[in-house]
C-alpha cells in the first residue's frame, strides 16, 4: 500500500500543510482590497482585481500584492494569480481555496524547473 504523500517533495508537503493559512491570508487580502479600493482603481480590460504572488524562500512563505514590476523580492519560488474584485461574499471561500491551490501549483512548477535546470548544469 502506498502513502498519499509518497513522491511529494518536502516543499509540496510543507505548502499543503500551510494551505489553510494561505487561504485565510488570501481572504484577509481580499477583504482589505474591497475596503481600501474602488473597483475603478484596480480593474480594467486586462485585470479584474489585484495581482497576488505566493513567494517561498527558505521554507517560509509570504503573499505579496500589486504590480509585479514593483516587486522587490527576487528570490525563491513564485506562484501568481489574481484576487478578483467582483466576487460575491458566497464565493469567497471556494475561490480563495482554488486560488491557493493555483499559487501552490505555480511555486511547485518553479521548484521542478529549478531542479531540472540544476540537473543539466
In short:
This protein is α+β, with helices and mostly antiparallel strands.
Task: Tell me what you see in this structure.
The protein is an alpha+beta fold and 121 residues long. The protein has one domain (10-120). It has 3 helices and 3 strands; from the N terminus they run H-H-E-E-E-H. It has helices at residues 10-36, 39-42, 92-120; strands at residues 49-57, 60-65, 77-84. The chain has a 3-stranded antiparallel sheet with strand order 2-1-3. The relative contact order is 0.19.
Provide the fold topology:
Elements: H1 10-36, H2 39-42, E1 49-57, E2 60-65, E3 77-84, H3 92-120
Antiparallel strand pairs: 1-2, 1-3
Helix pairs in contact: 1-3
> Strand sequence of the main sheet, in spatial order?
2-1-3
Shape: globular
Low-confidence blocks of residues: none
Query: What is the total number of structural domains?
Result: 1
Strand content: 15-25%
Compute the number of strand runs. 3
* Largest sheet: number of strands, sense, barrel closure: 3 strands, antiparallel
Distance between the termini: 36 Å
What is the SS-derived class? alpha+beta
Number of helices: 3
Roughly how much helix do the residues carry, as a percent range? 40-55%
Gyration radius (Cα, Å) is 16 Å
Quaternary state of the chains: single chain
Q: Whole-number average pLDDT?
A: 86
Order of helices and strands: HHEEEH
Amino acid at each position: 500500500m502506498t502513502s498519499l504523500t509518497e513522491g511529494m517533495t518536502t516543499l509540496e508537503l510543507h505548502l499543503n500543510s500551510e494551505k489553510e493559512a494561505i487561504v485565510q491570508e488570501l481572504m484577509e487580502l481580499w477583504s482589505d482590497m474591497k475596503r481600501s479600493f474602488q473597483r475603478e482603481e484596480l480593474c480594467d480590460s486586462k485585470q479584474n482585481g489585484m495581482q497576488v504572488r505566493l513567494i517561498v524562500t527558505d521554507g517560509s512563505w509570504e503573499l505579496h500584492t500589486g504590480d509585479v514590476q514593483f516587486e522587490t523580492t527576487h528570490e525563491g519560488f513564485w506562484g501568481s494569480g489574481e484576487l478578483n474584485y467582483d466576487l460575491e461574499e458566497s464565493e469567497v471561500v471556494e475561490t480563495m481555496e482554488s486560488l491557493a491551490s493555483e499559487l501552490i501549483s505555480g511555486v511547485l512548477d518553479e521548484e521542478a524547473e529549478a531542479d531540472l535546470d540544476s540537473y543539466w548544469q
